[in-house]
Amino acid sequence: MEICNLKLLNFRNYESLEIKFSPTTNIIYGQNGMGKTNIIEAIYMLALTKTFRLGNDNVVIKKGKNIAKIEGLIKDNILNTYKIIINDTGKRIKIDNNKISKVSDYITKINVVLFNPDDLKIIKDTPMTRRKLLNIEISGLKKEYVIYLNNYNKILKQRNAYLKALNKKSLGSSDFLNILTEELVTTGLKIMSIREEFINNINKYISDIYYEITKKGTLSLKYKSEFKGKTKDQLLKLYAKNISREIIMGKTLFGPQHDDVEFIVNNEVVKVYSSMGEQKNSVIAFKLAEIKNITHTLNRKPILILDDLFSELDQEKINNIINLIDIDVQTFITTTEIDFVNKDLLAKSTIFHVINGTVKEEKTYGK
Ligand SMILES: Nc1ncnc2c1ncn2[C@@H]1O[C@H](COP(=O)(O)OP(=O)(O)OP(=O)(O)O)[C@@H](O)[C@H]1O
Ligand SMILES: [Mg+2]
Do 107 and 22 have their domain in common? Predict the structure, then answer.
């Protein structure tokens, strides 16, 4: 699939912008703070309805304005116009001017794979960051996942509140708690199995990709979950055995809310001392594996966005990454260092120069 054009109104530092993109490689260059990431953020938000940056949705509204719009023409066999309108009270989403009320119906339609420098924290941050990554990536692949996840979080909240209440005073019968535990286990198992399947699929591709980038070593992901490899009965017994501990602590002690994913390079968990470049290679390998997984699972190619691809990496790794990108995948690359971009890549790309909230297309770089 591809985004053919993008229109922005009062989005970040753009008052009004309209650009046509190439179906192959788009290079967006300019100095720091000019608005490169803002463009790709708009594409990401058009796909997923949320920003990947910190803050609420309304932080994207241009300072001093009260409404922002993102509109894009998306080609995926047929052409559709997607639109997001954001104001201080919320956002509206539309496809071909028809209002969409369920976000889960919308976010599986445009598939975007994004690498952003913030993703480097995936490896060393707390497990919560990696669970968030799993949730975002799987949400774009499987509609029902979002529904299971929302249900699970609701049950978990209710169960925790009930355990806290039991802590204060005994409520006699344990029927209600048993119902909550059963629901928690049933929904938790569904989430666990979708996450496990996702990691298994990524593992089909990631090691070869990592090798192509680094020309040495292996990379795989290890999914860690307290529910993994257990049946419903085994889990119910586990909860039964620990019930008094749960009541004392006033919270649920097991479940996918503790899941984690380990990045394993050369059979070792990627350690705290790995360099930024090494971490970047692992995260980019993960993102490129996702492209293969999406292509295989949904039978369509996602849009690839590589924000600030060139920093932290040596020329050889950059070339290896570029060579791995399928020509059929519409790609966006942002950089401050256009002079470092490989000449062959420049020759086959459409180039955009960003200067303070304005964008100029350059047919040939430097001319
Ligand atoms: N809501 C907003 N309204 C107006 N301007 C904003 C808003 N949010 C961010 N900006 C401005 O957008 C600019 C940053 O744009 P962006 O992050 O796209 O830069 P960049 O070109 O990617 O820079 P870098 O090379 O440092 O990554 C900053 O000048 C910032 O002040
Ligand atoms: Mg940027």
Answer: yes
Q: Supply the range of the domain harboring residue 189.
A: 126-299
User: Whats the size of the chain, residue-wise?
Assistant: 367
Kindly report the CATH number assigned to the domain that includes residue 9.
Answer: 3.40.50.300
Give the Å distances, CA to CA, from 358 to 26, 104, 138, 306, 361.
Answer: 16, 33, 35, 20, 10
Output the residue whose Cα is nearest ligand 1's atom 7: 12
> Which tokens is 263 given?
């990045």
Lining ligand 1 with CB less than 6 A are 12-13, 30, 32-38, 59, 61-63, 308, 336
Token pair, residue 309, equals: 């691809």
Q: What is the CATH number of the domain that holds 161?
A: 1.20.1050.90
pLDDT in tens, 257-269: 999 999 999 888 8
Between the CA of 336 and the centroid of ligand 2 the distance, in Å, is 9
Q: Is residue 104 part of a domain?
A: yes
Number of folded domains that form the chain: 2
pLDDT reported for residue 169: 83
Domain final position from 242, 264, 299: 299
Which residues in the chain come in under a pLDDT of 70?
Answer: 172, 364-367
In sequence order, what are the residues at sequence separation of 6 or more whose Cβ sits closer than 8 angstroms to the Cβ of residue 215? Answer: 320
On whether the pTM is more than 0.70, the answer is yes
Taking residue 52's Cβ as centre, other Cβ atoms within 10 Å add up to 18
